[in-house]
């Protein structure tokens, strides 16, 4: 009888072990089912980087209002987690916040292309003054070699003219004025695909082409202020990228482009126009202030041809305007970048 009893005991032990394995497996599957919706919800926002350039106007609009959307979703997730006492739902809220920070701050990170060659720099300043003369002193203090003023008016001219012997202006539409210490030659004035001026500037490193622009803001309709639909804005920026790519001389594109640096149009004009963001020699930041400040939009730019660099970028507050001015010293990159010798101190 002992062998039979031992067999029954062994059989019972094996059955218990199999049952334990099944229970553990079911518990693990239940745990996965419990956490899967949370993990999926936390991962889904990161699909933004895969679709942001593929959907078109929808993602263009989302890029503009992204901080508000992120804040709304994160707040809703936190409130839901607290009210339902489901702490696991704080993970999607954290994921959305991290995505928002990465999307907004990513284009502000320094991406230095190198220093400008000595003696070749041109200090370029772009400022949307909102039609106000209050910022004249601030603009003069920036000591620009080339100053591009959006929404320019006659009230600014008496202060700026004595400091700048060369001047051009587009009247109507973009209302862009260019004040320069370097000789200018107007090549082309405003057109449907040129919201501003195209000029040739005699710089210290030779002539370069200047696009002095004020692009209409993307909006729901063309009726009202200086604005275009999101689709029309995209068409203007694509046309500008094509123009820039066809230039034989080095190019500087600057002004109020009304193009957020986290949007599709910004990435396309850099890629298709062969341009570098001169403002990323250092940390960037938003340039649209006032009522639009919560959206953290950097829409004023200084872009230069590949092979050119930017030094000492800065943003400057302008009285009477809801924009910061942007300034950078640009020119051909220094081919012989200074490297520490083997015996030098580090």
**Would you list the SSEs in sequence order as H and E?**
HHHHEHEHEEEEEEEHEHEEEE
- Helix fraction bin: 25-40%
How many DSSP-defined strands? Answer: 14
pLDDT < 50 runs, ≥5 residues: 338-346
Structural class: alpha+beta
DSSP helical segment count: 8
Estimate what percentage of residues fall within beta strands.
15-25%
Judging from the principal axes of the Cα atoms, what is the shape? elongated
Query: N-to-C terminal Cα separation, in Å?
Result: 87 Å
Q: Largest sheet, if any?
A: 6 strands, mixed
- What's the gyration radius in Å? 29 Å
Strands across the major sheet, in which order?
3-4-2-1-14-13
Provide key terms for this protein.
346 residues; alpha+beta; 6-stranded mixed beta sheet; 8 helices; 14 strands; elongated; disordered C terminus
Describe this structure in words.
- With about 350 residues, the chain is of the alpha+beta class.
- Helices cover about 35% and strands about 25% of the residues.
- It has helices spanning about 1-45, 50, 55-85, 90-105, 135-140, 155-160, 230-245, 265-275, and strands spanning about 120-130, 145-150, 165-170, 175-180, 185-190, 195-205, 205-215, 215-220, 225-230, 250-255, 275, 300-305, 310-315, 325-330.
- The strands form 3 sheets. A 6-stranded mixed sheet has the order 3-4-2-1-14-13, with no helix packed on it. Strands 5-6-7-10-12-11 form a 6-stranded mixed sheet, with helices on one face.
- Strand 6 (about 195-205) and strand 7 form a beta hairpin.
- Helix 3 packs antiparallel against helix 4 (about 90-105) and helix 7 (about 230-245) packs parallel to helix 8 (about 265-275).
- The longest helix has about 40 residues, at about 1-45.
- The chain is elongated, with a radius of gyration of 29 Å.
- The N and C termini lie far apart (about 85 Å).
């Amino acid at each position: 009888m002992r062998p039979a009893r031992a067999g029954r005991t062994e059989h019972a032990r094996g059955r218990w072990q199999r049952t334990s394995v099944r229970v553990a497996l079911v518990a693990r599957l239940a745990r996965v089912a419990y956490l899967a919706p949370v993990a999926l919800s936390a991962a889904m926002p990161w699909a933004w980087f895969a679709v942001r350039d593929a959907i078109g106007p929808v993602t263009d609009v989302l890029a503009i209002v992204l901080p508000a959307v992120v804040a709304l979703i994160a707040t809703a997730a936190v409130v839901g987690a607290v009210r339902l006492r489901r702490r696991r739902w704080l993970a999607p809220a954290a994921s959305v916040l991290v995505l928002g920070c990465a999307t907004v701050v990513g284009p502000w990170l320094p991406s230095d292309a190198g220093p400008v060659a000595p003696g070749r720099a041109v200090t370029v300043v772009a400022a949307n003054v909102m039609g106000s003369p209050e910022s004249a002193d601030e603009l003069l203090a920036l000591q620009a070699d080339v100053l591009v003023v959006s929404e320019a008016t006659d009230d600014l001219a008496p202060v700026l003219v004595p400091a700048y012997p060369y001047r051009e202006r587009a009247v109507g539409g973009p209302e862009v004025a260019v004040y320069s210490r370097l000789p200018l030659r107007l090549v082309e004035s405003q057109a449907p695909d040129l919201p501003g001026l195209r000029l040739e500037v005699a710089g210290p490193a030779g002539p370069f082409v200047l696009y002095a622009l004020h692009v209409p803001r993307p909006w729901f309709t063309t009726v009202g202020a200086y604005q275009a639909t999101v689709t029309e804005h995209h068409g203007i920026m694509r046309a500008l990228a094509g123009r820039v790519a066809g230039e034989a001389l080095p190019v500087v594109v600057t002004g109020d482009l009304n193009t957020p640096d986290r949007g599709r149009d910004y990435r396309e004009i850099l890629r298709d126009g062969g341009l570098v963001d001169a403002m990323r020699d250092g940390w960037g930041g938003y340039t649209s202030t006032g009522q639009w400040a919560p959206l953290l939009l950097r829409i004023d730019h200084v872009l230069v041809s590949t092979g050119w660099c930017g030094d000492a970028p800065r943003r400057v507050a302008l009285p009477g305007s809801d924009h910061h001015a942007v300034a950078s010293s640009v020119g051909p990159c220094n081919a012989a970048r200074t490297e520490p010798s083997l015996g030098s101190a580090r």
